[in-house]
Specification:
Layout (H helix, E strand, L loop, with lengths): L3 E6 L3 H12 L3 E7 L3 H11 L5 E3 L2 H5 L6 E4 L6 H10 L3 E4 L7 H14 L3 E3 L7 H11 L6 E9 L9 H4 L2 H4 L2 H17 L3 E9 L10 E8 L4 E7 L7 E8 L3 E3 L2 E3 L11 E2 L15 H14 L7 H20 L3 E2 L8
């Protein structure tokens, strides 16, 4: 038997990749699958060949299974707060799909529950294990472009009727907002690369898909505590291929996606150096590096260390988003409050 038994809760598209990633990890076995319907849970079990997984339609019963040590929460985002709190109270370590909470009040209760239980968490900002992300991070750690003074990250994705989550993504009560629904990856990325906290935002928005109950397209100017400035955008109704644009301007050079301009590093450089690598250029979950994320989650549990993408860190990303949404709604600049992350 594996060292850790895993419960995958929710049987939608992304859950398949969670199951397959756990199956690749030598320390884990998927021992339970829970979903609101038995049919969807059975389908996930059959699709992934998780032959030893017990099927549950009651989440709390699944959490009570003594063979469950880790939980992946793969349900729609409005359900994540309650499900995270219940998992923490049951003493389970938790991987939470984003967004984790559509309101600051719910986020605060989640952080309190996780801290009280002392369980490990990872929030599914899976792009941290994308090769382009890893290359950028390594170059920044080597000071290849010097101190960043300006940064841009864009999430552009046509989440229309053809896309699997569209049915619930259009609902404000479920998805929350453009940035909560998907653009949160951009906020996480800019924080991850700049390594400083955003103190103020000014945002604008519009809507081009009237089925959405919130504005699909949002852009925000941001100011970091250390003086850097930047821009974030979350566009859910673009007419172009999926794009995750990254621009980092430093005092010694510049990074643009997988292109590098750093004459200190490359003497005599006359043009951009392009690194052929796997880029974050698809909204297909099968393209996302879940195996790296889940291996990291398991390592954190085994070694009793907090993840760099724990709920505590993700709370800061979400509080930036709450400020962006408030600014877009009011037309005024908004200070980021960082209440949940201060608990």
């Amino acid at each position: 038997m594996a060292e850790y038994g895993v419960l995958v809760h929710g049987a939608g598209w992304v859950s398949t990749e969670h199951v397959r990633a756990y199956q690749r990890n030598p320390y884990t076995e998927v021992v339970a699958i829970s979903s609101r319907t038995r049919e969807s849970a059975e389908r996930l079990k059959e699709t992934t060949g998780a032959v030893n997984a017990k099927i549950y339609t009651d989440y709390e019963q699944a959490l009570a299974d003594p063979n469950v040590h880790l939980v992946s929460i793969c349900t729609p985002p409005n359900l994540h707060p309650r499900e995270t709190i219940l998992a923490a109270q049951a003493g389970k370590h938790i991987l939470i799909e984003k967004a984790v909470a559509n309101s600051r009040e719910e986020l605060i209760e989640m952080v309190k529950a996780v801290r009280k239980a002392g369980v490990k968490t990872v929030v599914s900002f899976v792009l941290h294990w994308n090769p382009q992300f890893m290359i950028i991070k390594r170059l920044l750690e080597q000071n290849a472009i010097g101190r960043i003074f300006y940064a841009e990250v864009d999430y552009w994705h046509h989440i229309g009727p053809h896309y699997r989550q569209y049915k619930w993504n259009v609902k404000k009560s479920v998805a929350g907002s453009s940035f909560l629904s998907a653009g949160c990856h951009a906020v996480d990325a800019i924080r991850y690369f700049v390594q400083d906290e955003i103190e103020e935002v000014m945002a604008y928005s519009n809507n081009t898909d009237r089925n959405y109950e919130y504005d699909t397209n949002v852009v925000a100017a941001v100011r970091f505590k250390g003086g850097a400035i930047g821009k974030l955008s979350s566009i859910l109704d673009c007419r172009c291929p999926y794009a995750f644009n990254i621009d980092l301007l430093g005092e010694r050079g510049t990074l643009r996606d997988n292109r590098i301009w750093a004459k200190d590093l490359f003497p005599g450089q006359t043009d951009w150096i392009t690194v052929p690598t796997i880029r974050p250029d698809s909204g297909d979950v099968t393209h996302h590096p879940f195996h790296g994320e889940i291996d990291h989650f398991v390592d954190c549990v085994r070694n009793n260390v907090e993840s760099h993408v724990s709920l505590y860190d993700a709370a800061k990303t979400h509080e930036v988003i709450y400020a962006i949404d408030e600014s877009a709604a009011t037309g005024k600049p908004v200070k980021v409050r960082y209440e949940a992350s201060a608990i």
